Amino acid sequence: MKAFLLAAGLGTRLRPITNKIPKCLVKIHNQPLLYYWLKLCEKYGVNEVIINLHYLPEKVKEFLEKNQTAVRLKTVYEEELFGSGGTIFKNKDFVKGEESFFIFYADNLTNVNLDKIKSFHKTHNGFLTMGLFMTNSPENCGIAELDGNKRIIDFVEKPKKPKSNLANAGIYLARQEIFSFFPNDNKLIDFGVDILPKLVNKMYGYLISEYLIDIGTMENYEKAQKEWKGL
């Protein structure tokens, strides 16, 4: 199985930590986020991963060269950021022939059971399965509304009047059909803003019960240091 690991974030809210390293190399318990993602992929049979790079790409390559993994890796450098959706679309040939593939946002720390997501995805047969978590600040997240069959009937990025507290976890299992919803131009594409709303009624939401946190802020980074129990 294959996955996109979106790791080009600047990590501006984690400065000064990210002055010298990219966000995906920020350490939790003496190991960078990227280490945990690769171990998670190994654990659940995701054996090929493409990683996009932008800020301090040589640091990421150096880490990958020094740390052996069973996962086959491909890195792609973006001189100018394509956006989360742009990276996926420009590298869609990487998943050519795959019935389904994962998309991960590398700024999250999680020990989610990917086998459970695979099973849910197969049962519900949507174009995309979105991992969800319960949030206390829905106005700062992408928010999904579900029907009784877990179908996503509404999705809004950072809504002023949230309809639920089910937030996008940045973990997806997608099918080839999603590519028909991407624009055929070279503009920056935000997956959450430009693509996911088009998939309403064609995607399903899976509530993640395992540990998950976005370490994009100093507060959450410090919280993760205290709470993380590993994979």
UniProtKB/TrEMBL annotation:
Top-level taxon in the UniProt lineage: Bacteria
SUPFAM superfamilies for the chain: Nucleotide-diphospho-sugar transferases
Q: Name one Pfam family in it.
A: NTP_transferase
Signal peptide limits: none
According to the entry, every stretch annotated as the Nucleotidyl transferase domain falls at 2-227
- Select a single GO molecular function from the record's annotations and give it: transferase activity
Q: Which UniProt keywords apply?
A: Transferase
**Name used for this protein in its record:** Nucleotidyl transferase
Q: Supply the source organism for this entry.
A: Candidatus Schekmanbacteria bacterium RIFCSPLOWO2_12_FULL_38_15
